[in-house]
Amino acid sequence: MDTDVKKNTIKILFFFFYLYTISVKVLSMTTKSNSLKINTNKKFEIIDITSKINESIDIEEGIISIFSKHSTSAIVVNENERGLLKDFESTLDNLITDKFSYQHDRIDNNARSHLKSFLLSSSECLPIKNGRLDLGTWQSVFFIELDGPRANRTVTLTMVGE
Ligand code: ZN
Fold it and tell me: From CA 72, how far away is CA 75, in angstroms rounded?
């Protein structure tokens, strides 16, 4: 065989091997979903949901979307230290103060709850390693109730990985 033909044949074989390894990788990826139901007891409440999420994780490695299906709540990652959580509550109250009137209060008396939710986020996307959230030492995942008390707040967990 001509050396150029030989070289091209080897290239083509490598290319097919590469495609094969990619398809094996893609086929081993899965998507799993789960949800958490949370009952809250106060107007403003911070609930550490880290262990509940860890119990619901169904893959070894990948990412997880943690999404609250409510516009007066939030999902955040931070440190579970009592003083800090109090600071977080008072900072939100100082930012979205009751000194002003809000348009949304004309139809639904919870504008401040929505506005706090706007400033935070309804979801977090986090890494999973060894079947658990791969968080830093001082990090926890919190569900933030901004307009409680409410029954059956829903947080969906969507996992992608292997
Ligand atoms: Zn509202």
Answer: 11
Asked if residue 122 has pLDDT above 90, the reply is yes
- Compute the average pLDDT of residues 57-85: 98
User: How many other CB atoms sit within 10 Å of the CB of residue 21?
Assistant: 10
**Ligand 1 center to 79 CA (angstroms):** 29
Count of CB atoms within 10 A of residue 47's CB?
A: 19
Task: Inform me whether the pLDDT recorded for 33 exceeds 90.
Answer: yes
- CA distances to 43, 69, 161 from 155, rounded to whole Å, are 18, 6, 20
Q: Checking phi first, is residue 29 left (phi over 0); if not, alpha (psi -120 to 50) or beta?
A: beta
pLDDT of res. 1: 62
User: Using CA atoms, how far apart are residues 153 and 17, in angstroms rounded to an integer?
Assistant: 48
DSSP calls for 17-84? HHHHHHHHHHHT-EEEEEEEEE---SSSEEEE-HHHHHHH---SSEEEEEEE--TTEEEEEE---HHH
Distance 72 CA to ligand 1 centre (A): 8
CA of 85 to the centre of ligand 1 (A): 24
Is the pLDDT at 116 greater than 90? The verdict is yes
